[in-house]
Amino acid sequence: MAVALLLTTALALAGFLVTSIQGFAVAAGIAGSSAAARALVTRHVGIAIPTVLLSLFSQSMVIFYFIGTGRLVKDEIASLPEAERRPILRALSGFKRRTSPPATFALASAIAVFVLGGAVHTRALPSWVHLAASLAAVLLHAWAFGAEWRAFADNTQLMNDPRTYARGTAKDSAVSSRSGSSRR
Fold first, then answer.
1. What does R_g of the chain's alpha carbons equal in angstroms?
2. Is 7 inside a domain boundary?
3. Sequence-ordered list of residues with C-beta below 8 angstroms from that of 181, at least 6 positions apart, any chain
4. Which structural domain, as residue segments, surrounds residue 74?
5. Residue 37 and residue 82: Cα distance in Å, rounded?
6. In this predicted model, what pLDDT tens digit does every residue of 129-168 receive, in sequence order?
7. CB neighbour list of residue 73: distance below 8 Å, 6 or more residues apart
């Protein structure tokens, strides 16, 4: 599931890049007002709509994925002593904290780009507004992809064996606190 969600995020990112380039070509007047320009606008919209839908799906599913896997792990570790549960719960919270903001902002940027594209198409806004929003969406999706990549990898380790993950986290904390105190 994690691989599929990363793939859909990557595809949405690629779609935003392609449609941004197409939109820039249209806005820059490279094609002029010819039939080629109309075809480019049609292709731009034809790629933009699935891209936005893919982004909405992937980013909302990332958020729900971490909620769902968090619930599964919490149920699995319910019988563990508090000292063993604490680092696992901290890790689960960290995964959500690392992925929810980028996923939410990427999702919102996709909606904004789509709405602003409609405003540009009806000539209610200048095209640079839509292009700027599109470039922001590309950056936000790249941020989301990076954050999700790391969190999915860590979450997979945690789900495979929560106790081992907790012990590894405790060892990492002890090592970093010892090395931090020796530097002072």
1. 22
2. yes
3. none
4. 2-172
5. 64
6. 999 999 999 999 999 999 999 999 999 999 998 888 877 7
7. 88, 92, 158, 159, 162
For 29-59, write each residue's pLDDT tens digit.
655 567 777 777 888 899 999 999 999 999 9
Position 180 in a domain: no
Say if residue 115's pLDDT is above 50. Answer: yes
* Cβ atoms of 41 and 23 closer than 8 Å: no
Q: What is the DSSP string of the chain?
A: -HHHHHHHHHHHHHHHHHHHHHHHHHHTTSSTTSHHHHHHHHHHHHHHHHHHHHHHHHHHHHHHHHHHHHHHHHHHTTTS-HHHHHHHHHHHHHHHHHHHHHHHHHHHHHHHHHHHHHHHHTTSS-HHHHHHHHHHHHHHHHHHHHHHHHHHHHHHHHHH-HHHHHHHHHHHHHHHHHHHHHH-
Count: domains in the chain:
1
86 belongs to a structural domain: yes
Q: Residue 55's Cα: distance from chain center in Å?
A: 8
Contact, 146 vs 62, CB < 8 A?
no
- pTM of the predicted structure, to 2 decimals: 0.83
Per-residue pLDDT tens over the stretch 88-103: 999 999 999 999 999 9
For the chain, the average pLDDT equals: 88
